Amino acid sequence: MLCRHGIRDHDEAAAKLIEFARQALPPDPVRVPTLQRTLAAAVDLHRCLHRNALELRREAAQALAATPYALLTSIPGIGFVLAAGLAGELGPPDPHRTLDQTCGYAGIVPRTYQSGGPDKPAVQGKVGPRCNRILKDWTVQSAMKLLLYGPNEIKDR
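Predicted structure:
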């Protein structure tokens, strides 16, 4: 194990660890049963949390599969967790919501102000204060995953 973790002179280091263990103070015999029960309870709790997390993931995957957002998982880099996060924040797909409205809601595009007619250039403002910051976070995470694992035509953009 020491060799796998890049420890030089692993045989010498192992000998030192064994010697330190021999010199260590033994635990108080009165406390040993309590410490053993505490350790067993911590292991049981860890196993229970792990089982519950797996069950929740399974249920969330089934719920995601029943929505159109399940298609997001077909994009390289977008996994179940990102797709479920995006689906949860976007809500039911609304056929009347445009791409610009969705981008504004997510807070990934700033507001554009234009007054004075078409002859004056548009002025870029700040991102709206009512944007969904959680959706923005999921969107940025998805973009980073696409940058790392997505197809080359998307990476180039």
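Summary: The CA atoms of residues 5 and 13 lie 12 Å apart.
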